[in-house]
Write a structure and sequence with these properties.
With 381 residues, the chain is an alpha+beta fold. 26% of the residues lie in helices and 25% in strands. The strands form six sheets. It has a four-stranded mixed beta sheet. The chain has a three-stranded mixed beta sheet with strand order 1-9-8. It has a two-stranded antiparallel ribbon with strand order 2-7.
Length: 381
């Protein structure tokens, strides 16, 4: 029988990307999988045909030969004799993208170990802390509701003095394997629900589950320098595992409250400090706040609004211990809202003493002779 073109089999155009090839195969694998079409030889053949097409087109070397010479260029050896290359399915779970859940492959991919043991689920806790706690670090306690191993049966689910019995249907494996066409399918054992054992005398405290719900108080150490969105992993503080399996982890996600004065960017801090007009003009010394208290800085003569000064090492400690950030102080000229008549006279006298070209720009080739106000007038017509 003449083989169909592999691109036709996957229903994709020639030149399709690797992702398109994988997506097309995944779609056909889901549609024609033997476990979904039990007893259908037609579905089995189409599944096999799609697998053969994918085995070639997913391999760059085979695809290059096929694109040039077609089926004749591959030969029987190039495709593993029957056209199906088992090596391409090493990552079968990834290729099918979740078909394990549909076809009962849970045990096949190690969700549960022998005896029904399974790792517990991971938990998340959102923790809000103050800006100061973020900068300096702290230790706090949180209350977590979670499933924990039953103390009465030690996680087995069986009443004290009894033991779970090995499932006779799956022989303790938790799954039953059977041949469907050319494919071996592993299905969760219906007799023991994948546990591998049967509990004949369930524990009265946990009713055979092996776990009970508890509220647990857990101490959390917050390192200095932590920022919003970062998380802390507390190993083994998640849900208890089924069948006495290991516990999952607890992830504490941090949210830091805004500060009324400082703003944080990375490990650096930024703030805006008001400076009086006389101090900005004549120069002087001002006191600025820091995380640890206050610091004095010198303001040089004729400091302009927006000028920025840096205090090294006055920022946030790096959360990984890589030094300290800096504190950047932006100057804002503080204009008084009201002035006395005496102050007005002094200001008018000061204004009169200023040169008339105080605000004139440096002449350029196309602006010579044009003052600031002339240029503003020109902009607005």
């Amino acid at each position: 029988m003449t083989k169909r073109d592999y691109y036709e089999v996957l229903d994709i155009p020639k030149g399709s990307s690797d992702q398109d090839i994988k997506s097309a195969y995944r779609k056909l694998a889901l549609k024609y999988h033997p476990d979904r079409n039990q007893g259908s030889k037609d579905a089995e053949e189409k599944f096999k045909e799609a697998a053969e097409a994918y085995a070639v087109l997913a391999d760059p070397d085979k695809k290059r030969v096929y694109d040039r010479f077609g089926h004749s260029g591959l030969g029987s050896a190039a495709t593993g004799g029957s056209g199906f290359d088992p090596s391409v399915f090493t990552g079968f779970e990834d290729i099918l993208g979740g078909l394990g859940d549909v076809f009962g492959f849970e045990g096949a991919f190690g969700a549960r170990g022998r005896g029904g043991q399974a790792r517990g689920a991971d938990l998340r806790y959102d923790l809000e802390i103050t800006f100061k706690e973020s900068a300096n670090g702290t230790e706090t306690s949180i209350q977590i509701p979670r499933q924990e191993q039953c103390d009465n049966c030690h996680g087995t689910g069986a009443a004290p003095g009894s033991k779970p019995k090995t499932c006779t249907q799956c022989q303790g494996h938790g799954q039953v394997r059977y041949q469907q066409g050319f494919f071996t399918v592993a299905r969760t054992c219906s007799n023991c629900r994948g546990l591998g054992s049967i509990i004949t005398s369930p524990c009265q405290d946990c009713r055979g589950d092996g776990r009970i719900q508890k509220e647990r108080k857990i101490k959390v150490k917050i390192p200095p320098g932590i920022a919003t969105g970062q998380r802390l992993r507390l190993g083994g503080e998640g849900e208890g595992g089924a069948g006495g399996g290991p516990s999952g982890d607890l992830y504490v996600v941090i949210y830091v409250q805004d500060h009324q004065f400082f703003q944080r960017e990375g490990d650096d801090l930024f703030c805006e400090v008001p400076v009086s007009f006389p101090t900005a003009t004549l120069g002087g010394e001002i006191t600025v706040p820091t995380l640890e208290g206050t610091e004095s800085i010198k303001i040089p003569e004729a400091t302009q609004a927006g000028a920025t000064f840096r205090l090294k090492g006055q920022g946030i400690k790096n959360v990984n211990g890589r030094g300290l950030g800096d504190l950047f102080i932006k100057i804002r000229i503080d204009i008084p809202k009201t002035i006395t008549s005496e102050q007005r006279k002094h200001l008018e006298k000061f204004a009169a003493s200023l040169p008339k070209d105080q605000f004139e720009p440096t002449p350029s080739s196309n602006q010579e002779g044009k003052g600031l106000f002339d240029r503003v007038k020109g902009i607005f017509g």
